[in-house]
Automatic annotation (TrEMBL):
It comes from the Bacteria. Residues 1-30 form the signal peptide. This is Twin-arginine translocation signal domain-containing protein. NCBIfam families: TAT_signal_seq.
């Protein structure tokens, strides 16, 4: 496949994904649900991660186990809304891990817009 065909296909995928998310959002499926289980677990995860990062790793085994437990629960949870799914994407991104290609970067950016994260 020629580079121009690959670039055209990537652009099509980006536009299609953005249009799909926009359609879902306009249909009310992206309404913020800050009280959902996934959103609540993610807030707990962020607080636990921040607390863990302030500790000496040699003295924080219990905190690390709690952080891993919360992360596993978020990963295994079934999203009930577009907002929940966007939260799961932000969790998977882990503050910038999903940056290997334009598609990952666009996906995370769209998730941030849906969730209202900066």
């Amino acid at each position: 496949m020629a580079d121009s065909q690959i670039n055209t296909r990537r652009q099509f995928v980006k536009v299609t994904a953005a249009a799909t998310l926009a359609a879902l959002a306009s249909a009310g499926h992206a309404a913020p649900t800050p009280d959902s289980d996934i959103a609540s677990m993610y807030r707990d995860y962020l607080a636990a991660r921040d607390a863990y990062n302030r500790l000496d790793p040699d003295d924080a085994e219990t905190e690390l186990e709690h952080l891993i437990h919360l992360s596993d629960r978020i990963t295994m949870a079934t999203p009930c809304s577009l907002h929940d799914y966007a939260v799961k994407i932000l969790h998977a991104d882990n503050d910038g891990d999903m940056n290997a290609n334009d598609e990952q970067i666009a996906l995370v950016a769209e998730a941030r817009r849906i969730v209202g994260a900066h």
